[in-house]
Amino acid sequence: MPTTIAWKLNVEIQSGPNIIVTNVVQADAYDRIEVKVPDSTAAPTATTVDVQPGAAGKVKLLLIRSSKYGNNLKYKVHDNTTAERVLNDAVFLVGAGSLDLLEDAAAPLDKLLITNTTGQDVVLEIIVGRTAI
Known about the structure:
Blueprint (H helix, E strand, L loop, with lengths): L2 E10 L5 E10 L1 E9 L8 E5 L8 E8 L6 E5 L7 E2 L4 E4 H5 L11 E6 L5 E9 L3
Antiparallel strand pairs: 1-2, 3-10, 4-9, 5-8, 5-10, 6-7, 6-9
């Protein structure tokens, strides 16, 4: 039975417009992952987080938020051969067009490799809405 994930984005611009976007995503399953990523400033090491089983194209919604953001919190998708990205704010992607920014058939969104050199441990919360395996 599908799970409905409702979401709402509220953008408020000082002396400007207030834009609210709402929608729903139908997913076969969702996962909520909370992981502590230790600081590895002394010897930068990635912490691997399994995001979802299966091939590319299964994820329909991805939310990544952290207890701390910055240029010293970085992640790669799938393995060490992919581009490194900075987690300097929350990530929220919905739909194939948006999620294609992170994944392709050669590098599915199955794992995140997170390197934390912020000077303190961080806690990530990751929400994944996906199709069945």
